[in-house]
Amino acid sequence: MDAFFASVEQRDDPSLRGRPLAVGSAGGRGVVAAASYEARKFGVRSAMPSVTAIRRCPELTFVPPRFDVYRAVSHQVRAIFADYTDLIEPLSLDEAYLDVTEDRRRLGSATATAEEIRHRIREETRLTASAGVSYNKFVAKLASDQNKPDGLCVITPEMGPAFVAALPVSRFRGVGPVTAKKMERLGIRTGADLRDCGLDFLVRHFGGSAEYFHLAAQGIDNRAVMPDRPLKSVGAETTFADDLMDVPAVQAALGEILDSLMRRVERSGARGRTVTLKVRYADFRSMTRSRTLTGATGNAEMIEALARGLVDDLPAILPGIRLLGVTLSNIVEEDEDGPVQPALPL
C-alpha cells in the first residue's frame, strides 16, 4: 500500500488531502509512523523523530494513529488477495507476498493478476497500492518499491541480475544504515559491487549474512511464500560504540530502542504478553530479563514501563553494557486478548 497510514487519514478527512501530513506524535520524543507523499517532498520519512520532521517541513500536520482503522483496511485488502491465491504471506499491515503461480482466475499472467488486484483495491478501499511482479520474493520486493506510488514494476528472470546489479545496496533487505556504511567503506555501493565480491570476502566481513548477500547480489532467492506465518516476536536492539557505564546512560539509550520497537509493533499490529530485556556486557556475557502479562498489549506506555522496570532490576551495570535490546513476544491473535495485568517474571 502507498503511504498506508497517511493515505487512510487523507481518504477519511478531505481537509488533509494535498497537505504534508505525518501520522504520529509531534511532541516530546514523538516519531513519524507514516508520511504522506506531500511530506516526503520535504524529506520527511517514517521512523524520523518528529522534531526533525517539523524542522524540515514547518507546515507539517500531525494526526494521531488509528490502528483499529488501519487493521480493518488491511483485512479488507487481504480478503481481495484471497480471491486470487491461498499463498499469502503478510509482512505487515500494508504489505504481503503472494504466490500466484496457479492463476486461479485464469487471467493469463502474474502481471494481469497484479493489475486486477490493484484495480480492486482502488475501487473497494479508495486507496492505491504498488506491486512488484517477479520470479522470487527478493526481486519482487525491490520491484514493488520501484514505481511508487500507484505503480507496477515487472522484472522477468532474464532482467533480474541486471536489475539487482544497478541498485544501491541500501535498497537490499537486511542492509540498514550501519551495514550500508560498512559496505561503503569496503567500496560496495551497488548490487554489482556486491556481486563482484567473493563469498570468502563476504564471510570475513559479514559473517552469517554473507551467503544471503552473495545470492541476493545475483538475484537469487529460494524462499517460498509462507502463508499464515505466525508472528512470534517483535524486537529492536543496538550495539553501542562506547559501553554504557551507569543506569542513567542505559535508561537514555533505552528510549531510542523503544522508539524503534514501537514503530515495528505499530506497523505489524502485533500485541504480545511478554516484554524481554536483553543485555550483553563488555566482557561478552549475556543475560535476559522478562516480564509477562496475563493479557496482550501493544500499548507503548505499558511496554516502556515494563522495559524500564527491567533495567532498574538489573543486578549490575559494570563492566559496562555493549548491547541492549527489547522484544515483545508471546504474540496473540486479536480474538485471544484477555485482561492486561502483570504476572510473575519468567
Notable features of this structure?
alpha+beta, three-stranded mixed beta sheet, four-stranded antiparallel beta sheet, Dna Ligase, domain 1, MutS, DNA mismatch repair protein, domain I, globular, 38% helix, DNA_pol_Y-fam_lit_finger_sf, cytoplasm, 21% strand, EC 2.7.7.7, 346 residues, Alpha-Beta Plaits
SSE diagram, text form:
Blueprint: H1 4-12, E1 21-24, E2 32-35, H2 37-40, H3 50-56, E3 61-63, H4 67-81, E4 88-92, E5 95-98, H5 110-125, E6 131-133, H6 137-144, E7 152-154, H7 160-166, H8 177-185, H9 191-196, H10 199-206, H11 210-216, E8 233-244, H12 247-268, E9 272-281, E10 286-297, H13 300-312, E11 321-331
Parallel strand pairs: 1-3, 6-7
Antiparallel strand pairs: 1-2, 4-5, 8-11, 9-10, 9-11
Helix pairs in contact: 4-5, 10-11, 12-13
Binding site for Mg(2+): 94
EC number: 2.7.7.7
Active site: 95
Describe the fold and architecture:
Helix 4 packs antiparallel against helix 5, helix 10 packs across helix 11 and helix 12 runs antiparallel to helix 13. The chain has helices at residues 4-12, 37-40, 50-56, 67-81, 110-125, 137-144, 160-166, 177-185, 191-196, 199-206, 210-216, 247-268, 300-312, and strands at residues 21-24, 32-35, 61-63, 88-92, 95-98, 131-133, 152-154, 233-244, 272-281, 286-297, 321-331. It contains 13 helices and 11 strands. The chain has 346 residues and is α+β, with helices and mostly antiparallel strands.
